[in-house]
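Following up on my earlier thread - several people asked me to post the actual chain instead of describing it. Fair enough. Here it is, all 338 residues.
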Amino acid sequence: MKIAIINESPTAYNLCVAKMATEFSRQGHEVFVSSRADMWSQRCEKAYISGIFTWDLPNLVYDASMLSTEYNMEVEVGGPAVTALPEYVQKFAGKAKIHTGLDERFEHIKGSFQATFTSRGCPRACEFCLVNRLEGRKIIEYEDYNIPTGINPYICDNNILSTTWKHQTKIIDKMRNVHNLDINSGFDDRIFIKDPDKYWNLYRQLHIEAWRFAYDSPEQKECIEYIAKWLNNKGINYRKIIVFCLSGGRDMSFGDCQRRLQFLIDIQTSPYPMRYRPLDTLVNNYTPPGWDAKWPDLLFGYYGVPYKWRSCSWKEYLLGEVDKGKISQKELGVILCQ
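Reply from S.P.:
Thanks for posting it. Predicted structure:
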């Protein structure tokens, strides 16, 4: 059989797409992988379409509808984006079969992949995060999982410190020879701070790319500051301490977000601004209520680019944007008053 596998979110590594391609090829099918429905996929007998981000859903439903109706092809759609907005997909995806949540058919496929999950679930259930709906709050530990490969291998577990200590020690044993390993979702600061020596002594055995944390709510400020200083005292500099910082979320003013990001620089970490988007948005460049449309790009253009915040202040950066004609003197005054 000729099978098309379409990744509608090509800006991100799609693990399920990689697993499907591996498994169907192993079964002897002729597999075509693309980022949109193209001439090759139109010649196939079946199509699997996956979307990670909700703003990719307009393209996903267009392709699903076209292939399932105009080409009378058997089509299945799934992925986090479909789980977030199943009603929208159902309405516009033609005759495609819709799959929500994790797809157990492909969850445990063996192969050589850039990413892996050693567990699923997260107990936090943050209102801005889809994991609760996709994986649930209960931690499910996998006994057997792939070791990530490639130049940038990473572990995708959404809350690795919520797994049992036995599970975490097994991860170390299995992955101690993996270089440049990225524990991509980071460490839960509220767990790490309970016994930093314990987690430091365990995870320092890995060749990890960075110590990642998240600063999503004001209540985490003191905790993040303590951990930053603690890691600094262990000889870890700001380049290796990366803190995801939710920006533009519910009740977050622009000024508050800017000050939180600056705080992370001041305590010797590297901020990683995370643009807030509602779970039901179809728009990538979402503008939070009360924000000017230019403000998110200014914020991420400075705090998301290390060489900029290392070389000049926030005000100096904004003055440069005035010189480039990106913002006016009046807009500069408004921004600095936030």
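The mean pLDDT is 95. That should answer part of your original question.
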